[in-house]
Design goal:
The protein is α/β, with parallel strands linked by helices. The protein contains eight helices and 18 strands. The chain folds into two domains: about 90 residues, Alpha-Beta Plaits (2-Layer Sandwich), CATH 3.30.70; about 150 residues, Vaccinia Virus protein VP39 (Rossmann fold), CATH 3.40.50.150.
């Protein structure tokens, strides 16, 4: 059987843990698990490989809190939380030892998967180039830029974009903190004519440009190094999936980029800071439309009062 073996929804009673949203479509009942960590405490899961695992290895790995499990050759691979020692894993599986190696963190080290894979968010299927997928899939490489599609904030923003575009399809969109370009490219695939993507990370801008070329959208996406202060004008639709602190810091500039009755989508906001971020933007004239929280992360949707 190809692909990952485990799927769980991980609720988030503690804001120091980011959980999974919905499991990926297209994989049968046994799918995948991922977990996110944030805050000041380090979260460095590790990979284990087990040759000829016992028949109940999957159950034991799930009980240990494995973040992802896949079959490999004649055994299993798993990503194990840093709070569980390799000796504890070996003991639970009744094996002499397990092979340990570093795990690869994606989305700035917040998503832990054994290998890149497709994920459906809303009506959009995001897939690596090497994975079989329909022609209308959004192709993203396995890069260092935030925005693989696996993080709850990305899903929340895509769903908010879809909702906005069912009301009216604007001629352009501004994506602040574009990362991999996933949100700008999604908007273009949904019918927006042009997009501008901003990021303060030069590597992210290069990666987003590569993704635009990969999806034949390079002629409709303009990428700029910097924040919302480096562009002029106003947009009918603005999306910013960054973090709460920069969202509040850039608020006076960001709201000036929202056009008359324009819509603003904000995420990267821990649920504990939703009220503070929302109040910041309401004071600047943004009218709250709705909010949604998933796995400890919130998206805020607002509309300009002017």
């Amino acid at each position: 059987m190809d692909g990952p073996l485990v799927s769980r929804y991980l609720p988030c009673p503690n804001p120091s843990i980011r959980g999974v949203g919905a499991p990926m479509d297209g994989l049968s009942a046994l799918l995948w698990t991922a977990r996110w960590c944030q805050g000041t405490l380090p979260c460095v899961p590790y990979r284990i490989d087990i040759s000829c695992p016992p028949h109940d290895a999957l159950d034991h790995l799930v009980q240990l809190g494995a973040l992802d499990i896949e079959p490999v050759n004649d055994g299993l691979a798993a990503i194990i939380p840093d709070g569980v020692t390799p000796d504890a894993v070996a003991g639970a599986l009744s094996v002499a030892s397990v092979a340990v190696s570093p795990a690869v963190g994606r989305d700035n080290g917040s998503v832990w998967l054994l290998s890149p894979r497709a994920v459906r968010i809303g009506s959009v299927l995001v897939a690596p180039p090497e994975v079989a997928a329909p022609p209308d899939a959004l192709r993203l490489t396995d890069s260092t830029a935030f925005g693989t599609g696996h993080h709850p904030t990305t899903a929340l923003c895509v769903e908010a974009l879809e909702e906005a575009l069912t009301i009216a399809v604007p001629d352009r969109v501004l994506d602040v903190g574009t990362g991999s370009g996933v949100l700008a490219l999604t908007a273009l695939m949904m019918g927006v004519s042009r997009a501008v993507g901003l990021d303060v990370d030069a590597d992210a801008v290069k990666i987003a440009a590569e993704h635009a070329r990969l999806n034949n959208l390079a002629d409709r996406l303009q990428l700029v190094l910097g924040g919302p202060d480096v562009v002029d004008g106003a947009w009918p639709l603005v999306v910013a999936n960054v973090l709460a602190a920069p969202l509040m810091e850039m608020a006076p500039v960001l709201v000036r980029r929202v056009g008359c009755r324009g819509r603003l989508i904000l995420s990267g906001i821990p649920w504990s800071l939703e009220s503070e971020v929302g109040q910041t933007y309401r004071r600047l004239g943004m009218r709250h439309i709705r909010s949604e929280t998933r796995a400890g992360w919130t998206v805020l949707v607002a509309q300009a009062s002017w």
